[in-house]
Amino acid sequence: xxxxxxxxxxxxxxxxxxxxxxxxxxxxxxxxxxxxxxxxxxxxxxxxxxxxxxxxxxxxxxxxxxxxxxxxxxxxxxxxxxxxxxxxxxxxxxxxxxxxxxxxxxxxxxxxxxxxxxxxxxxxxxxxxxxxxxxxxxxxxxxxxxxxxxxxxxxxxxxxxxxxxxxxxxxxxxxxxxxxxxxxxxxxxxxxxxxxxxxxxxxxxxxxxxxxxxxxxxxxxxxxxxxxxxxxxxxxxxxxxxxxxxxxxxxxxxxxxxxxxxxxxxxxxxxxxxxxxxxxxxxxxxxxxxxxxxxxxxxxxxxxxxxxxxxxxxxxxxxxxxxxxxxxxxxxxxxxxxxxxxxxxxxxxxxxxxxxxxxxxxxxxxxxxxxxxxxxxxxxxxxxxxxxxxxxxxxxxxxxxxxxxxxxxxxxxxxxxxxxxxxxxxxxxxxxxxxxxxxxxxxxxxxxxxxxxxxxxxxxxxxxxxxxxxxxxxxxxxxxxxxxxxxxxxxx
Length: 492
What we know:
Layout: H1 3-7, E1 25-29, E2 32-36, E3 41-44, E4 50-53, E5 60-66, H2 73-82, E6 92-100, E7 103-110, E8 115-125, E9 128-137, H3 141-154, E10 156-157, E11 175-179, E12 186-191, E13 195-204, E14 207-215, E15 222-225, E16 232-236, E17 252-254, H4 260-275, E18 279-288, H5 290-300, E19 308-321, E20 324-338, E21 345-359, H6 363-376, E22 378-379, H7 381-432, E23 434-438, E24 444-448, E25 453-457, H8 458-463, E26 471-474, E27 485-490
Parallel strand pairs: 16-17
Antiparallel strand pairs: 1-2, 2-10, 3-4, 4-5, 5-9, 6-7, 7-8, 8-9, 11-12, 12-22, 13-14, 14-15, 15-21, 16-21, 18-19, 19-20, 20-21, 23-24, 23-27, 25-26, 25-27
């Protein structure tokens, strides 16, 4: 999704006059580029957010990537703003509207009405999005709106100063457009002429995975972007190991907890060595990436604290491929959702891998290509929203099924308890020599057991203390006659 297209939605905030680009100076720092008016300052934060501030600190803009999203922008943005966001304290008069599917705009006041803010949230993938934020004093917001929009429009990731000269073998690979082949989930770029294998794998509507392997025409280099065969893992608790001989199903398996570093190392040793044909593979370094882990955790928890925890790690290696020395790097992440009660199940986690392998002289160009491919992905919003809707329907169907199963189980329990109560009462009647009776109208009586037939003397019943006192027992059937007798049926 192009930034310029996304940002046109901000025109809904105030007047519809076209924004005029203010005089600006180009800035290039820390992996991003932005044009800033005189006196403005830009800073990149640890999680990839970039904040640009005017000389008046109450006027600022922010761009923030969202990773590990569990809900679409229409849901997460409302939760985030309603529950309190430190960047916008004391939000009031929140106006949130859907510009189009996957694009949600919020307009509001904060600081007790003294400041005005706006946030645009754009879904960019099944589990990712972008936030574009504005803020200024309420009195100056309309006047500064065009300046702030111009700063946002000029922003792009990349850059970071003049690049160091590269060897000829590390020149940027030429790229060509590429569309995900199986379901048209996204468009991106790839090295020109490279073969693409893989696509979208649908385990279920609530577990849709992507995994691709790109191979150079001479088969000397490969790029891996995810692997749909990596199942989710269920980590058993102290009392849950008895279930490990049974598959949890649903695209999951029982396994111990693994960090991203452990997943990357295992993937390199198994898949890269065997399937990509790297002989004599030797791991040269392995390390956790706390910087990437912390950034992913902050983004995953932007809507509030949660039980999600990331663990990212990196592995580098060397070896030979078809007799040619090669090297490579793989980064993996595990996203763990910890259970509130961990007696039976500690939690579940998903696994993601990305990496490359090729001749040592191509390492720079391969790393650059991976970044450009991922950075160029533009997800098909219709596909994303359709998947979310299908997943929500399936989740609701499972919820209804589980609710009906619980109701059936409760009814079976109640029926068993009622049956047990009847048996206990029958035993009590037998031991006490009592019999229970009812007439044709369903009225119930008790009498001393020992007769074949029982009748109600209705005349006696009218003067007796209780109707049961007027029950007459007999070994012979008596027809109604001078005495008004009503036949009773033995029910127990």
